[in-house]
Inverse folding.
C-alpha cells in the first residue's frame, strides 16, 4: 500500500456559491468530487477524508429554530453530529458506488468523531465561524436584533451568522481512525471539524461551537501518523499578493517562508489564513508535507507536478 493521506475537502466542494444546498445539489457536487478520490484509491493510497460543514450546520440550526414552537431546539454540537451523519452518508454512498462501478473492493466507512476543546478558549467570547446561508445587510441586521445572533460580512459574498470556533486539542476517535486507515479502509471523519466536546472531571460533554475543519484535519494527520496532509480548496495553488497585479502563485514554500508570508498578512483570516496556519501547525508538530490545491489538480499535486507544497 502507498502513503496514508489526510485530505480535507473545502466547504464549497459540497455546496457551491449561489446554491441553496438541496440534497440533489450536494449529491451532484459530491459525485463530481469522487472520481478524483477514487483515482487515488485505485493507485493504492490510503485515504482519510475530512470535510467542512458550515452551510449544512447552519441550515440544520435554522430548521430546528423554525420548529421551536413544537420541537425543542437542538444544541450546536448535536447539529454538527447530524452534519457528520448526513455528509458522511452522502460521500460514502457516492464513493462506494463509484468503487463498485470500477470493480474496486474497498470498505468506505464514516466515523462520527468528537474533538476535545477548551471551554475557556477565548474563541467563545468572539464568534468567528460563518455558518448557514448568506443574507443581505438589512436581513443580517434584523436577525442580529431579533435573534441576538452574531452576524458578519463573509469574504464579499454577503452576511452570515457566526458561532464560536475553538481550537481542536485532541481527536477522541484517533486510534480507531488509525486502525481503520492502516488496514486499508477508506475513512470519512472529523467532518465539520469534529463534534466539540470538553472534559469535566474526566468525563466528556458536548459544547456548542463549530471547529475549523482545516485545524482539526491538521491535528488528525499528526495523530494518525499520516504521510502528508492535503488541503483542497477553490484554487490550484497558493499565491502571494493574491488578487493584486503582482500576484505570484507558488509551487513550494519552506516552513519558514510560509510563516514569514503568514506574518506579513499574505493569507486572509477568513479564507486562506486558516489553511496555511493549519499546515504550519502540522509541520511544527512533526508532519512531513502539506499540499494545498484544488480537486482537479489533486493527483498531479500528489505526484509532485502541481499544487503548492509546504515542507520544512
Ligand atoms: N493568498 C492566497 N492564495 C490563494 N488563494 C487565496 C489567497 N488568499 C485568499 N484566497 C482565496 O481563498 C479561497 C479559499 O478559502 P475558502 O473559500 O474560504 O475555503 P474553502 O475551500 O475551505 O471553503 C481560495 O479559493 C481563494 O479564492
Ligand atoms: N467546520 C468547517 O470548517 O466548515 P467549513 O469548511 O464549511 O467552513
Amino acid at each position: 500500500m502507498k502513503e496514508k493521506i489526510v485530505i480535507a475537502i473545502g466547504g464549497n466542494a459540497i455546496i457551491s456559491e449561489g446554491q441553496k444546498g438541496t440534497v440533489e445539489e450536494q449529491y451532484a457536487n459530491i459525485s463530481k468530487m469522487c472520481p478524483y478520490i477514487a483515482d487515488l484509491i485505485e493507485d493504492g493510497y490510503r485515504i482519510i477524508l475530512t470535510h467542512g460543514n458550515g452551510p449544512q450546520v447552519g441550515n440544520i440550526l435554522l430548521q430546528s429554530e423554525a420548529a421551536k414552537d413544537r420541537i425543542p431546539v437542538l444544541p450546536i454540537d448535536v447539529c454538527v453530529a447530524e452534519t457528520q451523519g448526513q455528509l458522511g452518508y452522502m460521500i460514502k454512498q457516492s464513493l462506494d458506488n463509484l468503487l463498485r462501478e470500477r470493480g474496486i473492493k474497498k470498505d468506505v466507512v464514516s466515523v462520527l468523531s468528537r474533538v476535545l476543546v477548551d471551554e475557556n478558549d477565548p474563541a467563545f467570547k468572539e464568534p468567528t465561524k460563518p455558518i448557514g446561508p448568506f443574507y443581505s445587510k438589512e436581513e443580517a441586521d434584523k436577525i442580529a436584533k431579533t435573534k441576538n445572533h452574531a452576524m458578519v460580512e463573509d469574504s464579499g459574498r454577503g452576511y452570515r451568522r457566526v458561532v464560536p470556533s475553538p481550537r481542536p486539542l485532541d481527536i477522541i476517535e484517533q486510534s480507531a481512525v488509525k486502525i481503520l486507515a492502516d488496514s486499508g479502509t477508506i475513512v470519512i471523519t472529523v467532518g465539520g471539524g469534529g463534534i466539540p466536546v470538553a472534559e469535566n472531571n474526566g468525563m466528556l460533554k458536548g459544547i456548542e461551537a463549530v471547529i475549523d475543519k482545516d485545524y482539526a484535519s491538521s491535528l488528525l494527520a499528526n495523530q494518525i501518523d499520516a504521510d502528508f496532509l492535503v488541503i483542497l480548496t477553490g484554487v490550484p495553488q497558493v499565491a502571494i499578493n493574491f488578487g493584486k497585479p503582482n500576484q505570484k502563485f507558488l509551487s513550494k514554500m519552506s516552513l519558514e517562508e510560509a510563516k514569514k508570508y503568514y506574518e506579513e498578512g499574505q493569507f486572509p483570516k477568513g479564507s486562506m489564513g486558516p489553511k496555511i496556519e493549519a499546515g504550519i501547525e502540522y509541520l511544527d508538530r512533526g508532519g512531513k508535507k502539506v499540499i494545498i490545491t484544488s480537486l482537479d489538480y489533486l493527483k498531479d499535486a500528489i505526484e509532485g507536478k502541481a499544487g503548492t507544497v509546504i515542507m520544512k
Observations:
- Residues 111 and 189 are 5 Å apart (CA to CA).
- The chain has a mean pLDDT of 96.
- The radius of gyration is 19 Å.
